[in-house]
Amino acid sequence: MVYESLPRTVRILLLGDPGVGKTSLILSLVTEEFTEHVPPKAEEITIPADVTPEQVPTNIVDICVAEQSLEQVAEEIEKAHVICIVFSVEKQETLSKIATYWLPFVRDNCPDDIRKPVILVGNKIDLIDYSVIDNIWDIAEEYPEVDRCIECSAKTLTNVSEMFYNAQKAVLHPISPIYSIEEQELTEKCKKALSRIFKICDLDGDGLLDDYEVTVFQRKCFDTPLQLQVLDEVKSVIAQNIAGGIENDCITIKGFIFLHCLFIQRGRNETTWTVLRKFGYDESLELTHSYLYANVKVPVGCTSELSYKGQQFLTQLFEKYDRDKDGMLNPTELKNVFSCCPRIPWHNLRYTVPTNDKGYLTLQGWMCRWTLMTLLDLQNTSAYLAYLGFNFLENESQKSAIHITREKKVDIAKKQSSRNVYQCHVIGPRSCGKTSICRSFLGIAHKKIKPHAHERGDGNTSDNCCINTVLVYGQEKYLVLKEIPITRVSDPLQPHEVNCDVACLVYDVAASRSFEYIARIYIKYFAESHIPVLIVGTRGEALPARQEYILQPEVFCGKYQLLPPQTFHVRENKHDVFVKLATMAAFPKHRHLKHFASLTGDNSSWWKAGIGVAAATVMGFMLIKIFSFQRR
User: Which residues cross the membrane (predicted)?
Assistant: First the structure.
């Protein structure tokens, strides 16, 4: 069934046989008194928002079948948001026609697959001394669009205002998406939505809502505190009506769902809808697009990272679901984290981020994976933050969890980068050891290295990527290694394969034709660019072969003012290669050998270079201050 989106105004249409009191009900509402002489049809009435309980403008439309054609009535049905079918409780034939004529007529004239809510109204109860509600509900069971039934009297004003208020509620807080009248319980979609809400509000992840958690939920959903006495009464009602609803004086998920079922059964479906909408649900119980996807633009030359608030939220989430407190998320715990999401967003974690020997996510690996998704697929990060409750718990949109970096050209001009995440493209001919370098970055032993994710058809945006942290002059940075797949050496590189923060050109020192490929790649794509380049020779333990190229690697690097080739052996797992890559990305202006001439030795040289750059920056700042003071 499809439901219409929430309207800004409510249009109520009154249908029914002649003489049942449709016009009298409208006039009694407006004048607050009964009029003996009424016209055949009331003019359309608009009730301002400030005099309605729901603060929504309301139009009330009357129908006179003697004056209007069926086509005109059908047009009004299509325009209406809710339809009140009125009958006279003293005339059985008007009640019978609801099922035999009016409800089928309404269905036939609604747009495809849209069920407009219907209120069945028994008027003139002042003329009888019994109730016909039971007879009405028999009809309602056949037609799920019947929201509720109400008895009233236009003459005595009994339930007149309540009738129109309930018509408003049927539009603004529809019962059909959340409650099955036939089964007398919540719909499956409603249960699923409330289960997600429960898990988000369960701040400590123990499967229960204690008094503090219920109080937080109440304050954020309804902006009012919950008195302790009222909370005790609520828990008492749950305990008396459903087994397992209360545990250790806390509300279980079973009790939470029962409570909302009770609200609806008592006609307070607006309470449940207030909660659902607070957590992003629309009238079809789907999370809205605006709730899932924050309006964040990433300008050309900028990148997206997690802000401090985003990192803090994700760290707390990790700790919440790490039930055994071993500092890792095992498969069950990871599944529980994303139990309120459509699916787990990641695969092949073992070959993408740091894990333990069993492939379980550590906190470092957890933060690395979110960092990678934020960099490569910001929309997905935004959606999953929403699924996991960031909007509710932080009381603001996911935009506050995202940081957009400044343009890269500014970094180049300032000779250093303020980013925390850098992309390194690993480029080289087939079988030169690119995958070994990437896997070594994650600390995976050589014998455990398996084919790359793209060879197994993972299909994720992060295919061919791995990410880990690196210390750059004492600051933790994220370095993403993206392996560029090469099918044929004659294939040109695409712009997205070239554009990165630092390039790692890889060749096999033992293969005589290996270096030629990366030399040509460098000359064609990187020689005139601002992208720093580090050349790495794999199989460092092997006897180097003379390269069949006009320049040997050392001579080539000297000619183009690059650092000398760095040898890499997977069994030794030389971490300084990754430190150098990250440092070169952090200081993009220092891309040539003349800037990094002293950085070919141990890591202390890199540290000294960092001190030098920092000192130069401080000295420049002090000179500016001195000159500014002298001008004064």
Answer: 606-627
